[in-house]
């Protein structure tokens, strides 16, 4: 991101979002109505029913279906719109029977979310469609396009169906028959067909920051949402529920409604907001055990019915208390604010890390985090200082929120949010500067080893990785070589990010992507650890790090009542699997033997020959060996505080962590 642009060009552009402007007075109209009571000050926004959430968007036109309920009498709101009276005791909330779901967009969110919904709802057919043929082909193969712990098993169970089996375990009083499961998850490029058949359509397309034109560098590009919505509008059945799963600017549900109305003025659709909170690297775990499912709907009878129908889909595995229903725009806004506040915690700790380093008194940012995290009001998560936050979400969503604040002429609010990004950029630049400074102010003739390229551990996602920014800064110093290794990322993805980072040809020629840590560290003057992979902690550090999957899981005994049910749910089957693993003392993925064999890859499969294995199989760094292969004085710049400084110092390394004393 170009921070100068963020700092200098205040992106106050009235009426940028037509859908927003329709519901709010535009920034200009606000300014011009300074004298009209209750309309000019920020307080007047609080008085606006739209902003309060009571005047949620106009409902779809009443359905023409014979069985559709009558709308309740409407109240007139401040902006002249009519809104149904909500909260009446006879509000019908009968969920519509959902038999067919379509996901538009088979990306990091669409693919895993669809898979988990299909997994827990075997009676619902889930079609996942995407325009990208390669991606769809990967979802249909054994080389999924996304590496997430446990994802392949979930996909195989739903996509391929399972074998029937009889479970006999010593802890069970009798054998349990598990029926064969029919496939109910289909990945394809048949966008129109899948939309035509769906009761619920999740829109999961990308919403990056605009890179050109109006609002470039700060506004969200919703063109993929528009395009997907147009296809939905032209092809969906009447009554289909449209769900915004993508992270969107506040007000996008209204834009979707407008597009639907334009193409299908006589047809009724409800638009729900259902933002996704999964984090990459833990996507399956987050989807299986979400902190909350947020559903935003119009506070009207059809809106509430649509929300109830969606709730019923999640209720297959999520406890009701975790499903939160609010109005559409609160939901859209909450997603942006959640990411902004998570990032704010990281920037706060990164700011503290700079202070620890400059203080020179030995204050350690990890100690500070520990102390803060014990305060139950603060909590321990997202307090890990490092080289900054990366990834496709935080930066984009903070920009999105700040942009909205600027549009609303809330400059102080926008500045407040943008400060989080300034610290993030400052932190990564500070790191690169310190590496150069410690290497006597010049990288000429030196080799720099970079361990970690993914934006975080546990994922193969390289989008907006912090590593690419730091590598760019280091490359400007014209080192002999920058060697990069990441145990989870494909070479092509790393190369792609680097080639798009704006390096000159001469700088690009100095970059080498390696397949292991030995080749990376050989003859290097410094090792930069940029992703918190456990492999980089090293095998010297006491016990080798546990590989996930081998942990002895606590078996949920309440779920083990599976045998009392005629057709155990997947949650109960998972509890049986945990029990079987415990009894077999093995982390085997399919202890009950339910999975069907995978279809073998075609001869010469590119992914097989590339040998992309699971990161779990990658070798742990042996720092003793690294010490022998590096140039003196063997610098380790630990950007994620993952190595054991004292042990590495004992091996002869000079180690600098984040927020750990003077540089
Ligand atoms: N990545 C995450 O961890 C995460 C988490 C929560 C929310 N989100 C949000 O979810 C949304 C999707 O993110 P992602 O990471 O899955 O993006 P992605 O780029 O991985 O996937 C988006 C997919 O949509 C497809 N697509 C675009 N237009 C289409 C169309 N008209 N018809 C069919 N397919 C189309 C693309 O080909 C692509 O495969 C974004 O708004 C993002 O902010 C992402
Ligand atoms: O204490 C911490 C925690 C994270 N990070 C970094 O922050 C970035 C983002 O990490 P994380 O939030 O775990 O991953 P994401 O997949 O980006 O998930 C975020 O963005 C998603 C997309 O909107 C949301 O759904 C998730 O709830 C939200 O956590 C990564 O570079 C991490 O290394 C830190 O530096 N310190």
How does this model look, in words?
- The two termini are 27 Å apart.
- By secondary structure, this protein is an alpha/beta fold.
- Residues 1-94 and 543-552 have low confidence and may be disordered.
- The chain is globular and about 70 Å long.
- Among the domains are: 99-159 and 185-333, NAD(P)-binding Rossmann-like Domain (Rossmann fold), CATH 3.40.50.720; 442-539 and 616-663, NAD(P)-binding Rossmann-like Domain (Rossmann fold, 3-Layer(aba) Sandwich).
- The strands form 5 sheets. Strands 7-4-3-8-9-10 form a 6-stranded parallel beta sheet, with helices on both faces. A 6-stranded parallel beta sheet has the order 15-14-13-16-17-18. It has a two-stranded antiparallel sheet with strand order 1-2.
- The active site is at residue 393.
- Belongs to the UDP-glucose/GDP-mannose dehydrogenase family.
SSE topology:
Elements lengths: L2 H6 L9 H6 L3 H6 L9 H6 L1 H4 L21 E3 L5 E3 L15 E5 L5 H11 L4 E5 L3 H7 L11 H10 L4 E3 L8 E3 L6 E4 L2 H7 L2 E4 L19 H13 L5 E4 L7 H12 L6 E4 L9 H6 L4 E5 L3 H14 L8 E5 H32 L5 H9 L20 H14 L3 H28 L8 E5 L14 H10 L5 E5 L5 H9 L5 H4 L2 E3 L3 H5 L4 E4 L40 H15 L21 H5 L12 H7 L5 E4 L6 H6 L3 E4 L6
Helix pairs in contact: 6-8, 10-11, 14-16, 14-17, 16-17, 17-18
The chain binds nicotinamide-adenine-dinucleotide (NAD) and uridine-5'-diphosphate-glucose.
Enzyme class: oxidoreductase
Organism: Diplogelasinospora grovesii
Keywords: NAD, Oxidoreductase
């Amino acid at each position: 991101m170009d921070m100068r642009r963020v700092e200098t060009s205040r992106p106050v552009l009235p009426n940028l979002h037509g859908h927003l402007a329709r519901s709010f007075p535009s920034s200009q109209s606000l300014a011009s109505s300074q004298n009209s009571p209750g309309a000019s000050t920020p307080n007047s926004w609080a008085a606006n029913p739209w902003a309060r959430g009571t005047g949620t968007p106009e409902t779809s036109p009443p359905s023409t279906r014979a069985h559709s309920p009558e709308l309740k009498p409407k109240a007139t709101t401040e902006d002249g719109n009519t809104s149904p009276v909500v909260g009446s005791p006879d509000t019908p909330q009968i969920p519509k029977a959902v038999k067919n779901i379509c996901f538009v967009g088979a990306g990091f969110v669409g693919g895993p979310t669809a898979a988990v919904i299909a997994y827990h709802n075997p009676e619902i057919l889930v079609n996942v469609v995407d325009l990208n043929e390669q991606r769809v082909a990967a979802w249909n193969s054994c080389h999924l396009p996304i590496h997430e712990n446990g994802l392949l098993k979930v996909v195989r169970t739903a996509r391929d169906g399972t074998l029937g089996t009889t479970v006999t375990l010593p802890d069970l009083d009798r054998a349990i028959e598990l029926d064969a499961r029919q496939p109910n998850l289909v990945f394809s490029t048949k966008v129109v067909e899948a939309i035509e058949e769906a009761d619920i359509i999740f829109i999961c397309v990308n919403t990056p920051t605009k890179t050109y034109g109006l609002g470039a560098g700060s506004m969200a590009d919703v063109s993929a949402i528009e395009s997907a919505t147009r296809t939905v509008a032209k092809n969906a059945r009447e009554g289909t529920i449209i769900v915004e799963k993508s992270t969107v600017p506040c007000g996008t549900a209204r834009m979707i409604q407008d597009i639907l109305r334009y193409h299908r003025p006589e047809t009724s659709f409800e638009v729900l907001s259902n933002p996704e909170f999964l984090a990459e690297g833990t996507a399956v775990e987050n989807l299986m055990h979400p902190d909350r499912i947020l559903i935003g709907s119009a506070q009207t009878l059809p809106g509430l019915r649509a929300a109830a129908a969606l709730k019923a889909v999640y209720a297959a595995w999520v406890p009701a208390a975790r499903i939160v229903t609010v109005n559409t725009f609160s939901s859209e806004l909450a997603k942006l604010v959640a990411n902004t506040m998570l990032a704010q915690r990281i920037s706060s700790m990164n700011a503290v890390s700079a202070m620890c380093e400059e203080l020179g008194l030995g204050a350690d940012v990890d100690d500070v985090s520990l102390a803060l995290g014990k305060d139950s009001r603060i909590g321990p998560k997202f307090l890990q200082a490092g080289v900054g936050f990366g990834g496709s979400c935080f930066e984009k969503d903070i920009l999105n929120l700040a942009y909205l604040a600027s549009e609303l002429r809330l400059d102080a609010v926008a500045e407040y949010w943008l400060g989080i990004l300034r610290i993030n950029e400052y932190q990564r630049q500070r790191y690169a500067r310190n590496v150069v400074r410690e290497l006597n102010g010049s990288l000429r003739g030196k080799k720099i080893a970079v361990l970690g390229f993914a934006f975080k551990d546990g994922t193969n996602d390289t989008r907006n990785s912090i590593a690419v920014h730091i590598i760019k800064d280091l490359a400007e110093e014209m080192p002999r070589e920058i060697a990069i290794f990441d145990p989870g990322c494909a070479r092509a993805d790393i190369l792609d990010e680097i080639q798009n980072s704006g390096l000159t040809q001469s700088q690009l020629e100095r970059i080498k992507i390696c397949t292991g840590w030995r080749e990376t560290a050989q003859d290097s003057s410094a090792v930069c650890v940029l992703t918190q992979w456990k492999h980089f902690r090293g095998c010297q550090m006491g016990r080798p790090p546990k590989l996930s999957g081998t942990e002895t899981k606590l078996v949920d005994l309440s779920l083990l009542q599976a045998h009392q049910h005629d057709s155990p749910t997947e949650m109960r089957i998972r509890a049986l699997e945990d029990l079987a693993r415990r009894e077999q003392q093995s982390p085997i993925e399919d202890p009950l033997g339910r999975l069907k064999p995978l279809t073998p890859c075609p001869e010469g499969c590119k992914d097989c020959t590339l040998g992309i294995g699971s990161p779990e199989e990658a070798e742990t760094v042996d720092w003793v060996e690294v010490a022998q292969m590096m140039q003196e004085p063997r610098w380790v710049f630990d950007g994620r505080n993952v190595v054991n400084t004292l042990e590495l110092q004992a091996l002869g390394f000079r180690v600098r962590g984040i927020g750990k004393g003077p540089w």
